[in-house]
Amino acid sequence: MNFKLLPDSEKPRERFIKYGKENVSNEELIEIILRTGNKKYGIKEIAYNILASVNNINELKEMEITGLAKINGMSKIKAIELAAAIELGRRVFEEEAYEDLIYLTNPSSIIDYFHRLFRDVKQELFYVLYLDNQKKYIDKKLLFKGTVNFSLVHPREIFKNAYLLSSSYIICIHNHPSGDASPSNNDIELTKKLKSLGDIHGVPILDHIIIGRNNYYSFFEDNNILSK
Fold first, then answer.
1. Which residue segment(s) compose the domain that 91 sits in?
2. Residues 124 and 214 both lie in one domain
């Protein structure tokens, strides 16, 4: 159907307002996000092509911009717009989930909430979780990307955020894209130095967790560095 021939009351934005966000289709939501078609494809056709390119809508969140741009009617700009909307939705959902956190006292509870940060990631990401004096979640910060070692992971950034957030405890968590969660020599050396500095600053490092592929390593659980 030609979008321009639709009665105004049946256009996606108007339906969104009239019937509520829960009562419009996935196709209509995509039409609202992308707004317009192009000379060859109308917006309704583009939205249809996007949904037809996946088995279910959840797969869209895994698609890269280059893949989205290859869909008939899409361009790089439209691919960025759609990817940005999906990412915003993901962040809203995740931050809402983090608000439900009460205590982060063991690696399994931490991984349950934060493993998605490392899903399909091809490089090492170093996050720091900041907790209050009851070990409740305050915030998370992605502080470093790339190979984790002491020369790249600067303690100043870690503890600066701890002071800004009035954090009492810190948990470090990073991934090994290789899939093997075993700590490297750099991981061990870094953990020792951060533990020492945490004691000096009065903001103890509770744990340093390494995420692999269906496995993890916890310095608190499996090593005596943090238990001394």
1. 7-96
2. yes
Distance (Å, whole) CA 26 – CA 7 = 20
Alpha carbon dihedral 115, 157, 204, 145, in 10-degree steps, equals 30
- Establish if 175 belongs to a structural domain: yes
Question: Which residue in this structure is represented by tokens 């509770």?
Answer: 206
**Sheet architecture: strand order including 216-218:** 137-145, 125-131, 169-175, 205-211, 216-218
Report how far residue 61's alpha carbon sits from residue 180's, in angstroms, rounded to the nearest whole number. 25
pLDDT of amino acid 79: 94
Q: Return the structure tokens found at 83.
A: 């990817």
Note the pLDDT tens digit of each residue in 168-186: 999 999 999 888 999 988 8
Per-residue pLDDT of 50-79, as tens digits, reads 999 999 888 898 899 999 999 999 999 999
User: Which pLDDT value is given to residue 136?
Assistant: 83
Give backbone dihedrals phi and psi of 23, rounded to 5 degrees, phi first. Answer: -115, 20
Please name the residue that has the structure tokens 């009851």: 134
